[in-house]
Amino acid sequence: MTDDLCLMTAADLLGKFRSKAVSPVEATKAALARAKATEPALNAFVLLCEEGALAQARESEARWMKGEPCGLVDGLPTTVKDLFQLEGHPWRRGSLTTPEDPATEDSPAVASLRRHGAVFIGKTTTSEFGCLGVTHTRIAGVTRNPWDPSKTPGGSSGGAAASVAVGAGTLAIGSDGGGSIRMPAAFTGIFGIKPTAGRVPYFPPSVVGSASCIGPLTRTVGDGALMLRAMADPDARDWIGATTPAPDYVAEMEGGVKGLRICYSPTMGYAKVDEEVAAATRRSAEEFAAMGAVVEERDSLWDDPREAYENVFRIAQAKAWRTFTEEQRTLGGPEFVEMALEGMELSLFDYTDAEAVRANFGSQVSVLLDEFDLLLTPQLCLTAFEAGLEYPGGRGMRRWLDWATFTYPFNFSTHPAATMPNGFDSNGLPTAFQLVAQRGRDALAIRACRAYGEAHPIPLPPLPV
């Protein structure tokens, strides 16, 4: 166990609270100090809630002193991605087009974590309305990767990933409509999971509907399992969300992988993957086999659903654009505006055609995951590239979707997908693999990541102070 309060696991911190060796106030002060120290290098926060966080921490301290914690994460420093409402604080969604008025309620996941005692230390950066796989905006500037601040941490939960990686918070709320938990987790070398659609309540609804999910970004698999359980209490505001409590993911994560059937697919039949990333994923497949899993390589799985997904995504941005005033339209960032205008050109038939592709694709994924317990792929085609860019130059790309080939398909299909770091490239940047499970079997993906993490503990970046 580390002595650094900022880098302790959730379980270790909770144990310290229980024994009264450490106070939630001390943990919160340490997390706030870490955020302030790393913020000039990372630009991961849109605001810090210092006064409110310390008040929450004092309330938590009083509960622990009585031996009466109020929930699963009582006293743990937590951050909220600025796509979600945190009562009493602005909800800008990464955009100059939004008002500065404070939110009047918590989003469901925030409310659930608050009931479980989380201490909210700040709101983290996001791309504008979550529309990019990187995190830079006109309102907040460029968020950077703690492994190399000249590189992007990915997005749209870039601030969440960068902050939790350096200990500016124990738990980080992210969301994923095309890879926005998994991409920054992969680029910054931490754990993240996009749960089954509807498992964590979502309100107001995402513009991409059930393609977007809320989930945890954490420094360990165990922290992610605990956080996912705590943020997944049912909420009536999400009218199609889960109506029963989430499983105890912590209790279910220790089963190992012996006997599990894993389909290993290096490209899913169409992805172009950098050599070092591909090699790291192949090594992970071999390691799962050595741990007792039954691993079968099967490269050609299905056709790329990119065009259909991108049409749905374009229309989602157009939904916002069509409600804007002329003044608001001058304030939107160029990438968001480009996608929104493309969406305005699409017809109802384009949308229904895309949804038909989605239904067929989701069926194909479910059929595969009835044959196998898990699908193993690279998480991304490459490692982190220059901050402030949507995609690396000189590679013939035109949009972030060109390098996110392994993420958006499982937003389309609504299956749970977890990301786990599995090494570094020759430039010292993290690589990662993805595990996809059948709908509702989130615990199985967590369990396999836990087994891998027990053999290969997640290394953390140096502090970019």
Element string (H = helix, E = strand): HHEHEHEEEHEHEEHEHEHHHHEHEEH
> Remind me, CATH topology of the largest domain?
Amidase signature (AS) enzymes
- Cα separation of the termini: 23 Å
The number of distinct helices, counting runs of at least 4 residues, comes to 14
Give me the Rg, rounded. Answer: 20 Å
Going by CATH, the homologous superfamily of the largest domain would be Amidase signature (AS) domain
Indicate the mean pLDDT.
97
Question: What would the keywords be for this entry?
Answer:
14 helices; two-stranded antiparallel ribbon; Amidase signature (AS) enzymes; single chain; 13 strands; 465 residues; eleven-stranded mixed beta sheet; 2 domains; alpha/beta
Q: Describe it for me?
A:
- With 465 residues, the protein is α/β, with parallel strands linked by helices.
- It has two domains: 10-231, Alpha-Beta Complex (Amidase signature (AS) enzymes); 261-416 and 428-448, Amidase signature (AS) enzymes.
- It is built from 14 helices and 13 strands.
- The chain has helices at residues 10-19, 24-42, 50-65, 108-115, 158-165, 182-188, 221-231, 275-290, 306-321, 326-329, 334-344, 348-371, 408-413, 442-455, and strands spanning 45-48, 77-81, 119-124, 136-137, 141-142, 171-176, 191-194, 213-218, 261-264, 294-297, 374-378, 417-424, 430-437.
- The strands form two sheets. The chain has an eleven-stranded mixed sheet with strand order 1-3-2-6-8-7-12-13-11-9-10, sandwiched between helices.
- Strand 12 and strand 13 (430-437) form a beta hairpin.
- Helix 2 (24-42) packs antiparallel against helix 3 (50-65), helix 7 (221-231) packs antiparallel against helix 14 and helix 9 crosses helix 11.
- The longest helix has 24 residues, at 348-371.
- It is globular.
- The chain starts with 9 loop residues before the first helix and ends in a 10-residue tail after the last helix.
